[in-house]
């Protein structure tokens, strides 16, 4: 694996370390520098050196438009080494205007772009022949729109005439000016947000009246957020109550149907209770009805050795009620026979 890593190094387009800073004295490239044409560079350069491309700019509020321009410059030729020149605050404020980021911040932003091989600090505003030879620059990359500055209609005019200019395309919809315009347009929003985060009115250059206005607006926004939160919670609560009430109603309906079914099964016209009542009423009638004595039962006889005890005054003969006419006649005849014996 180690041999493969040495023989197949990663391409320079996939940098894993920040770009180096150019030494302030002179370029360290010791290879002999021969002037190349665009056609020669596109076919491939000598093995001993890459094509050295230079791209300069302010790069304030470094954004994707900057990165895409540098990507195009890096991929113009098969073997390219991209040097990016960044102008200082002094030159920028003199020829262009105030910047949001300080020059050291802009240097560091460029160092961490994956397409940049080297960063040149305090780059000149106008490129001279001495500067190009000093850094052994083959081509200068920039968008093709004339850049009027420092009393010149196009600061890259002499580069284009020398055949050392390679154009890149701008990314529409994104630029430093566009970002600053967005901030200025929504200034109140950003000022209120930073006041809420702890920045002072002095740091934000906000007047006393505006500070009080922004803080009042922040309080109003907080109240609105609380009301919105309460509304969301109440909606969620009502939804849960409705859902639970629906479940309760459904369960109640199921239980009521079950109760009605059990009630009909027990007390209905053909229910269990009616059958139980009929069975119990039949048993009670059977228990209350008298049992008739058998018709062919023999008459009662007394033994001669033992005289019958005289009947008690209050004693009544125990006779079972006749269950049939035959039983009744038999009991009457037996009673008459008994009377005759006693006489």
UniProtKB/TrEMBL annotation:
* Matches recorded under CDD domains: CCT
Task: Provide the catalytic activity annotation.
Answer: phosphocholine + CTP + H(+) = CDP-choline + diphosphate
* EC number(s) from the headed UniProt entry: 2.7.7.15
Q: Which residues cross the membrane?
A: none
Query: What GO terms are given for molecular function?
Result: choline-phosphate cytidylyltransferase activity; phosphatidylcholine binding
Q: Which UniProt keyword terms apply here?
A: Lipid biosynthesis, Lipid metabolism, Nucleotidyltransferase, Phospholipid biosynthesis, Phospholipid metabolism, Transferase
Under the heading Pfam families, the entry gives: CTP_transf_like (PF01467)
Give me the stretches of Low complexity compositional bias: 289-318, 325-336
Q: Does the keyword Lipid biosynthesis apply?
A: yes
Which pathway does it serve?
Phospholipid metabolism; phosphatidylcholine biosynthesis; phosphatidylcholine from phosphocholine: step 1/2; Lipid metabolism
Q: What does this protein's UniProt record list under function?
A: Catalyzes the key rate-limiting step in the CDP-choline pathway for phosphatidylcholine biosynthesis.
Q: What is this protein called?
A: choline-phosphate cytidylyltransferase
Q: Which organism is it from?
A: Culter alburnus
Upper lineage: Eukaryota, Metazoa, Chordata, Craniata, Vertebrata
């Amino acid at each position: 694996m180690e041999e493969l890593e040495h023989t197949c190094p990663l391409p320079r387009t996939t940098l894993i370390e920040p770009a180096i800073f150019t030494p302030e004295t002179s370029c360290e490239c010791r290879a002999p520098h021969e002037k190349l044409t665009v056609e020669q560079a596109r076919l491939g350069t000598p093995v001993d050196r890459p094509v050295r491309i230079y791209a300069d700019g302010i790069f304030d509020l470094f954004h994707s438009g900057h990165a895409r321009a540098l990507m195009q410059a890096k991929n113009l030729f098969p073997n390219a080494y991209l040097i990016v020149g960044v102008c200082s605050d002094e030159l920028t404020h003199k020829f262009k205007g105030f910047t949001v980021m300080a020059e050291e911040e802009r240097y560091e932003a460029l160092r961490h772009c994956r397409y940049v091989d080297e960063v040149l600090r305090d780059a000149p505003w106008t490129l001279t022949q001495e500067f190009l030879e000093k850094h052994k620059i083959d081509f200068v990359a920039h968008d093709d729109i004339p850049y009027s500055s420092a009393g010149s209609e196009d600061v890259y005019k002499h580069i284009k005439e020398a055949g050392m200019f390679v154009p890149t395309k701008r990314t529409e919809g994104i630029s430093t000016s566009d970002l600053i315009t967005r901030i200025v347009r929504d200034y109140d929003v950003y000022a209120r947000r930073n006041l809420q985060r702890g920045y002072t009115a002095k740091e934000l250059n906000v007047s006393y009246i505006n500070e009080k206005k922004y803080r009042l607006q922040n309080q109003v926004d907080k109240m609105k957020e609380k009301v919105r939160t309460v509304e969301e919670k109440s909606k969620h609560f009502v939804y849960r109550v409705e859902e639970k009430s629906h479940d309760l109603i459904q369960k109640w309906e199921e239980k009521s149907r079950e109760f009605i079914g059990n009630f009909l099964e027990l007390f209905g016209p053909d229910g269990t209770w009616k059958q139980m009542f009929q069975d119990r009423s039949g048993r009670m009638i059977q228990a209350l009805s008298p049992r008739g004595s058998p018709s062919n039962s023999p008459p009662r006889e007394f033994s001669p050795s033992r005289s019958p005890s005289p009947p008690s005054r209050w004693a009544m003969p125990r006779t079972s009620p006749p269950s049939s006419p035959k039983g009744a006649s038999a009991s009457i005849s037996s009673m008459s026979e008994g009377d005759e014996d006693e006489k």
